[in-house]
Automatic annotation (TrEMBL):
Superkingdom classification of source: Bacteria
Organism: Pacificimonas flava
InterPro entries: MoaB/Mog-like_dom_sf, MoaB/Mog_dom
Protein name: MoaB/Mog domain-containing protein
UniProt cross-references to Gene3D superfamilies, sorted A to Z: MoaB/Mog-like domain
Pfam families assigned to the protein according to its UniProt record, in alphabetical order: MoCF_biosynth
Residues of the MoaB/Mog domain: 194-294
Amino acid sequence: MARTRVGAMKFGDRRLAACEGAILAHSVDLDGTRLAKGRLLSAADLDAARQAGRERLTVAEPSPADLREDDAASLITSALSGSGLDARPPANGRVDLVARTRGLLCLDPRVIDRVNRIGEAIGLATLPAFATVEAGEICATLKIVPFAVRAAAAQRAAKAASVQPLTVEPFRALSADLIHTQGENPTPKLEAKTAAVTRTRLEALGGRLTSERAVPHKVDSLGDALAEAGSDLVLVAGVSATTDRRDVVPAAIRKSGGTVLRLGMPVDPGNLLLLARRGAQWIVGLPGCARSPKRNGFDMVLERLFAGLPVSSRDIAALGAGGLLKGSERPSR
């Protein structure tokens, strides 16, 4: 009998007399009775095979140093699954991790890579980092390819996964104030469109727009309006784009006691976003593309804020890979 080895597991074609207690490698039909692959063969199974005219079967036989596929998958996903995720029961060497609630999937791609580099017998696939997920949605799936894997390899994979487990951070019900700035010729229709689009964005994440006002596009006027805003978020829709930290919007933020954390982001559309903070309150200077319902850089920041994640200049700088958004409207500047 020709055999190949995956780790210490034996695999090959055997006479029926040597198959009891082994794992059936390929499904077989026995006069209307189907034995599914992965089945632990019993004496009764082998009698049925003989009566159907079979003399040999292809089987796998793990060694004491191996873990069966379901046990290995459960071990690794137990270490991988963090808050907001539930593991489905293992089946055929696969365990799916599903979101317990609507929120943002948080993971470190380097951890996923380390698990997959343990060996070809272990395959872990996930949704992208910071994907928005719904309750019950599959966020990750782990598959053990052979019928068994070395226990030591599964343990190394579990240790690698435990460094930073996957989590789903639920969206919080945040409130937001929207401030428009106006030039010499106000644009009420544009302001109404911006408010409607913004309200829809906030409500999609479980938030609400609590107030809306318009002030002149001047440092003192906007600074006073920012100082009076009391919601969790303050969104500023400037009449003109902010392209310098000395411009009206960042200057007004500083006047109100806030700190500008970042002006500009490596996401297109969305390059001209401004992020600031005043105490526990976040302030976002909206890029022009935020007036459109199409996805842009503002959505990426807003989702993280609603999920309660810290957003720093460094975090925004890391958005460049994948930051060129397909199918979105691109600004002229």
